[in-house]
Amino acid sequence: MAETVTRAQLSEVVYQEVGLSRNESADLVETVLEEISTALERGESVKISSFGSFSVREKGERIGRNPKTGEEVPILPRRVLVFRASHVLKDRINGVETVDGEDNA
């Protein structure tokens, strides 16, 4: 199973790479995550270059089925979070070498 990256680990990386104090690093990570969350709550999209975009999608009411009993049940309208990875991130995950966003293949 893959390891999960935590807020504490992100803060530690910021501390090591940027040189802020541990408290300042933790505050910076919290501020960034809070700003992303607040923008999504407002229904705005969040785009992070070379990483991906987060957006909120409205799903309407529909009829679902209880898999155990087969009984039809209404599924209420709701908002769902959608993440779309950038092509740069997809390439990194798949081990594709790129130079300035261009394929070397």
Summarize the structure.
With about 100 residues, the chain is α+β, with helices and mostly antiparallel strands.
Structural description of this entry:
With 105 residues, this protein is α+β, with helices and mostly antiparallel strands. It has two domains: 1-44, HU Protein, Chain A; 45-99, IHF-like DNA-binding proteins (HU Protein, Chain A), CATH 4.10.520.10. 37% of the residues lie in helices and 30% in strands. The protein has helices at 7-18, 22-41, 87-93, and strands at 46-48, 52-59, 62-65, 72-75, 78-85, 98-99, 102-103. A three-stranded antiparallel beta sheet has the order 1-2-5. α1 (7-18) packs across α2 (22-41). The longest helix is centred in the first third of the chain and has 20 residues, at 22-41.
Major sheet strand order: 1-2-5
CATH topology term of the largest domain: HU Protein, Chain A
What CATH architecture of the largest domain would you give? Irregular
CATH class (first level) name of the largest domain: Few Secondary Structures
Q: What is the distance, rounded to the nearest whole angstrom, between the alpha carbons of the first and last residues? A: 31 Å
Measured on Cα atoms, how large is the radius of gyration? 19 Å
Mean pLDDT: 92
